């Protein structure tokens, strides 16, 4: 990780120096070592703060929408992990960003850590995390602790889509495709499907009632890129921004899942940023699972310009009656 | 605030018997915006319309709701009424309390409640209606006929005679269709070829008709008056202009293992072939899947033997693009698959044949030169059993639910022709019912029974098997004498169900024309608009719409032609103002709407917009209102809600839903 971070910084400085790029989109450290946030850097001096660590889970693709618009000269450099490139492609498909304005460096990724999981193990006061690939050696103000790396991975990394980059101008330190069996990303969805309607309702009732309507999921979601969100538009009559009643808080997430259906790359950002730990990605995965089963395997963002099954018609499409029957079960 | 009038129609007893119309008026008169409500026996009548006009003037109405039949029935009527009273016609909403309510409910209380809800939804919508102005579009004065059977030929001839150019697209190498395969025709017993081939020639020679044979419709875009059609002219590997139809090549072709479709595969044809002697165009065609040259690169005998130098192995498929004002679908039918009925031994025994195969056997140009022979041993048969309704009128998954309509008559014809030509042959017919409505039809059937002594047995056949003598045994029931019967016979003829041609689904999809559960094309109204598809500018001719015989087909073909001519005679058409448009401030140019638009009506422009003082160039969807049909697919696909449909805006729909859920 240290080595990769060094290589990235070296290359970023080169590209800034030769004028290939005028701005860099990366991550910087906050008050704590795990408190890593997206940041942009305009000069070599600023780029000194650029980091690449096991806490760089944030997907930077969405920032390119506003960055591309604001960019007047040169290109913007974006550091994208393999899974981020799916979102990047999806945004290109939707004409939200301009490929010519972006210089993509694909950065190798072993899987990112979830600080919430580490904290949940009772590990607090963290000052340093040494990652040897299998185990985490965590230095805290209370002494050293260890945990299995696997137990601390982000949900999205447990079912890693791929170590391959779907878009890039150059790649730094790529990882080989993992050989181990990946977790079944639909396992929890299947579990929910097996529940009775009442049980399922109770599950979501409990989860969604935690929502404080901070809108973080919407703001971070690369598929949520409307000029004017329906929730901010009083004319839409859909819902308002505040949580006025329990019906609205449920509808907010369900409407959002419908809006991104077929376009969601399953980047998992919604659940990652949720301060209430609502497993929002499950709503999206239910859609993805249904789309895969009804219309054949489809991965949004796999390639630019692909026709999503929900916005396409083929003669092999499932008959509406089939879809309807599933809905009734 | 709108000033809305609500008019509740009784439709005689159609609505009033199930819906308490007084209660509906009472319930809606205090709805927001409503300042007048009344009911009347026949709102569509002169007096009813007068009542609406008076109310509009008297109460200064700005919008009206008519609670009546389906908008497909009388929306146009009431829009005209409103216009005559000075109201914009798009300020009229119909609440369908007949088809959607009174006709499907028995309980008056429930039906009344529902009628009130439907009325409230329409009122909520009209509250948000805005006056709309229709546009105009030009009419391309050229018609396309898909299918070159008797239906297509007749439609094309009638349109061409009225002075408009017509193109016939026929997928096989010749026009003529199924009728060309028939021997004699009921009820007059005149020879099919003698009456059909002159029409084929007439079509070919007509200055206004152009035939694209061995061609298929590849894509259709556009709309009534302005269809853009791509036609694929398949490579026939023979130059149509050079070929004289001398048929030397067809006789010399050494590849003779494949069946001859025209003779129902009862004999074989060469890889280069002319389907039959009177084919139009009389031009050979190479079947590249069977041709030795295409398989091995050798042979080329046809090329060498052609004195006109017409054979061209390098010919390629050609795409022709043409504009049309109207399209007639005349794709006809095919015999349904009888291999599902294995109890009749069709796949196992050559003497079990379909009626169309018998037609070819009886035909002088057929595989036996018109001599009735058993296909197994080429011997003269002594007994023939006909089985009716094979695959028709059933309710198992093997069957069609409908009656194929033509089988009773052609079976009577076959029986009669056989008895006439071979009085020594015994003919038995197993039937469920004999259905012979039609001019001179029942007389025809009675002649078969009374004059020709055909043995009609009411009952069905259970199974057929080959007996020890090498003949066939038929086991069936005679329902009139209530006994099981076994008949030894030489041939069994199956009256197989007819079904719409394969590929009609594809064509229907291209035309956005609807089809029913049996794949027959749906008419705009089963009684009053039987030759029009619900899709404007698309007309139906022949069996593609439902089973029918030749006289009926020809009448319908003529009727479809009249509708086409009526359309082409117009210089301009009024277009619906109910089209989509994108809100520039909300559209983010994501292309989703373009992907779901079935009419190719959406493209994108880079446009400078002023978003609350912020000026920037954005990629924005643009709808071509001439191409937009107002289907609304884009409005629901748009993730931002930027797409909206005039006359059916998102707000209006939500208001309707809210009113219903209230």
Description:
- The complex is a heterodimer of chains A (329) and B (662).
- Chain A is an alpha/beta fold and 329 residues long.
- Chain A folds into three domains: 2-114 and 154-172, no CATH class; 120-152; 187-328, no CATH class.
- Chain A is built from twelve helices and nine strands.
- Chain A has helices at 2-17, 63-70, 82-93, 115-120, 155-158, 187-194, 197-208, 216-220, 246-260, 269-273, 281-295, 320-328, and strands at residues 21-29, 36-41, 50-51, 75-80, 102-107, 126-131, 135-140, 143-148, 170-172.
- In chain A, the strands form two sheets. In chain A, strands 1, 2, 3, 4, 5 and 9 form a six-stranded mixed β-sheet that branches. A three-stranded antiparallel β-sheet of chain A has the order 6-7-8, with no helix packed on it.
- In chain A, a hairpin with a 3-residue loop joins strand 6 (126-131) and strand 7.
- Chain B has 662 residues and is α/β, with parallel strands linked by helices.
- Chain B folds into five domains: 4-126, Rossmann fold, CATH 3.40.50; 143-226 and 319-331 and 502-568, FAD/NAD(P)-binding domain (3-Layer(bba) Sandwich), CATH 3.50.50.60; 248-305, no CATH class; 334-499, FAD/NAD(P)-binding domain (3-Layer(bba) Sandwich), CATH 3.50.50.60; 580-645, Alpha-Beta Plaits (2-Layer Sandwich).
- In chain B, helix 6 (150-161) links the parallel strand 6 (143-146) and strand 7 (166-169).
- The relative contact order of chain B is 0.11.
- The chains are: A alpha/beta (329), B alpha/beta (662).
- Structure class of chain A: alpha/beta
- Give the termini distance of chain A in whole angstroms: 48 Å
Provide the β-strand percentage band of chain A. Answer: 15-25%
Domain count of chain A: 3
Cα gyration radius of chain A (Å): 21 Å
User: CATH topology of the largest domain in chain B, anyone?
Assistant: FAD/NAD(P)-binding domain
CATH top level label of the largest domain in chain B: Alpha Beta
CATH superfamily of the largest domain in chain B, called what? Answer: FAD/NAD(P)-binding domain
Q: Mean of residue pLDDT of chain A?
A: 90
């Amino acid at each position: 990780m240290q080595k990769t971070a060094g290589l990235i910084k070296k290359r970023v400085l080169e590209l800034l120096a030769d004028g290939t790029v005028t701005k860099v989109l990366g991550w910087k450290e906050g008050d704590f070592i795990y408190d890593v946030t997206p940041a942009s850097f305009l000069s070599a001096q600023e780029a000194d703060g650029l980091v690449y660590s096991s806490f760089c889970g944030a997907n930077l693709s969405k920032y390119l929408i506003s960055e591309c618009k604001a960019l007047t000269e040169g290109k913007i450099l974006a550091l994208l992990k393999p899974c981020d490139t799916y979102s990047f492609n999806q945004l290109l498909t939707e004409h939200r960003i301009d490929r010519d304005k972006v210089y993509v460096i694909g950065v190798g990724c072993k899987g990112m850590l979830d600080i919430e999981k580490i904290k949940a193990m009772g590990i607090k006061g963290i000052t340093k995390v040494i990652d040897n690939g299998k185990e985490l050696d965590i230095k805290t103000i209370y002494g050293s602790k260890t945990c299995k790396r696997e137990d601390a991975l982000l949900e999205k990394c447990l079912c890693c889509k791929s170590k391959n980059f779907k878009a890039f101008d150059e790649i730094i330190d790529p990882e080989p495709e993992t050989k181990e069996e990946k977790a079944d990303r639909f396992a929890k969805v299947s579990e929910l499907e097996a529940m009775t309607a009442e049980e399922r309702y109770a599950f979501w009732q409990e989860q969604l009632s935690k929502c404080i309507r901070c809108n973080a999921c919407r703001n971070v979601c690369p598929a949520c890129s409307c000029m004017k969100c329906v929730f901010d538009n009083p004319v839409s009559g859909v819902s308002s921004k505040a949580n006025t009643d329990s019906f609205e808080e449920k509808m907010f997430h369900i409407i959002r899942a419908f809006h991104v259906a077929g376009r969601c790359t399953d980047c998992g950002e919604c659940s990652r940023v949720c301060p209430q730990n609502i497993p929002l990605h499950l709503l999206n995965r239910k859609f993805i699972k249904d789309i895969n089963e009804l219309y054949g395997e489809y991965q949004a963002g796999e390639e630019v310009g692909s026709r999503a099954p929900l916005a396409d018609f083929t003669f092999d499409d499932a008959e509406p009656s089939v879809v309807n029957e599933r809905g009734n079960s | 605030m709108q000033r809305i009038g609500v008019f509740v129609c009784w439709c005689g007893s159609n609505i009033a018997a199930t819906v308490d119309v007084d209660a509906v008026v009472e319930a809606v008169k205090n709805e927001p915006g409503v300042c007048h409500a009344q009911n009347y026996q026949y709102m569509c009548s002169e007096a009813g319309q007068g009542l609406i006009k008076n109310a509009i003037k008297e109460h200064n109405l700005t919008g009206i709701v008519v609670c009546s039949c389906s908008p497909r029935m009388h929306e146009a009527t009431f829009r005209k009424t409103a216009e005559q009273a000075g109201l914009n016609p798009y300020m009229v909403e119909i609440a369908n309390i007949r088809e959607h309510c009174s006709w499907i409910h028995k309980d008056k209380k429930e039906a009344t409640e529902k009628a009130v809800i439907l009325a409230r939804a329409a009122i909520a919508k009209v509250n948000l209606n805005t006056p709309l102005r229709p546009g105009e579009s030009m009419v391309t004065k050229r018609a396309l006929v898909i299918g070159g059977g008797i239906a297509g030929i007749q439609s094309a001839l009638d349109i061409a005679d009225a002075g408009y150019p017509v193109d016939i697209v026929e997928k096989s190498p010749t026009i003529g269709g199924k009728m060309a395969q028939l021997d004699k025709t009921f009820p007059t017993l005149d020879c099919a070829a003698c009456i059909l081939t002159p029409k084929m020639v007439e079509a070919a020679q007509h200055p206004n008709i152009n035939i694209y044979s061995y061609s298929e419709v590849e894509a259709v875009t556009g709309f009534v008056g302005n269809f853009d059609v791509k036609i694929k002219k398949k490579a026939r590997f023979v130059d149509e202009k050079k070929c004289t139809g001398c048929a030397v090549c067809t006789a010399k072709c050494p590849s003779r293992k494949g069946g001859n479709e025209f003779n129902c595969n009862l004999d074989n044809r060469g890889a280069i072939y002319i389907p039959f002697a009177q084919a139009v165009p009389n031009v050979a065609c190479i079947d590249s899947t069977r041709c030795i040259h295409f398989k091995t690169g050798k042979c080329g005998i046809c090329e060498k033997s052609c004195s006109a130098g017409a054979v061209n192995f390098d010919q390629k498929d050609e795409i022709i693009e043409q504009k049309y004002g109207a399209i007639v679908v005349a794709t006809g039918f095919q015999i349904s698959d009888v291999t599902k009925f294995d109890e009749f031994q069709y796949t196992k025994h050559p003497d079990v044949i379909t009626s169309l195969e018998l037609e070819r056997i009886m035909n002088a140009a057929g595989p036996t030169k018109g001599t009735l022979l058993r296909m197994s041993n080429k011997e003269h048969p002594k007994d023939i059993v006909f089985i009716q309704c094979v695959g028709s009128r059933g309710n198992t998954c093997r069957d069609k639910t409908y009656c194929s309509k033509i089988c009773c008559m052609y079976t009577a014809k076959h029986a009669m022709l056989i008895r006439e030509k071979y009085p020594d042959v015994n003919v038995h017919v197993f039937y469920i019912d004999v259905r012979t409505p039609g001019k001179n039809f029942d007389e025809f059937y009675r002649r078969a029974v009374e004059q020709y002594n055909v043995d009609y047995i009411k009952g069905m056949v259970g199974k057929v098997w080959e007996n020890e003598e090498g003949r066939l045994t038929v086991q069936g029931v005679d329902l009139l004498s209530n006994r099981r019967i076994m008949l030894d016979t030489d041939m069994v003829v199956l009256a197989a169900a007819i079904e719409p041609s394969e590929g009609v689904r594809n064509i229907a999809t291209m035309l956005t024309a609807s089809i029913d559960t049996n794949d027959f094309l749906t008419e705009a109204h089963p009684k009053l608009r039987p030759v029009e598809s619900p899709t404007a500018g698309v007309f139906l001719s022949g069996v593609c719409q439902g089973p029918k015989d030749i006289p009926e087909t020809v009448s319908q073909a003529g009727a479809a032609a009249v509708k086409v001519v009526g359309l082409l005679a117009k210089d301009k058409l009024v277009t619906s103002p109910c089209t989509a448009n994108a809100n520039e401030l909300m559209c983010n140019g994501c292309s989703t709407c373009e992907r779901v638009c079935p009419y190719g009506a959406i493209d994108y422009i880079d446009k400078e917009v002023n978003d609350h003082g912020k000026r920037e160039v954005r990629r924005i969807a643009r709808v071509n209102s001439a191409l937009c049909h107002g289907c609304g697919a884009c409005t629901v696909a748009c993730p931002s809600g930027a797409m909206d449909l005039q006359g059916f805006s998102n707000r209006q729909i939500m208001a309707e839903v809210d009113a219903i859920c209230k």
